[in-house]
Write the structure tokens for this entry.
Amino acid sequence: MAAELMTVEVATATAAGMKAIGAGIAVGLTGIASGIGEMAIGSAAVGAVAENKDMFGLALVFTVLPETIVIFGLVVALLIMFQ
């Protein structure tokens, strides 16, 4: 009975809403995972730089590495929204 009441407008709005939810989940979960990864990497990087100043460049690279995952999540979200 619910299928009989669904119009084209309702189906279109539902599809757009599901796309938005999927895009939000893609960005949100990658952001949370990146934050968890950066938590451990950041504390280790600060400890390494405190003991040896020459490790700063390498520690910076390792700290920035998890942030690229959020960029991938953003790309997936854009692909979902503009498909």
Q: What stands out?
A: Residues 6 and 58 are 57 Å apart (CA to CA). Residues 8-51 form the longest helix (44 residues). Residues 35-83 form one domain.
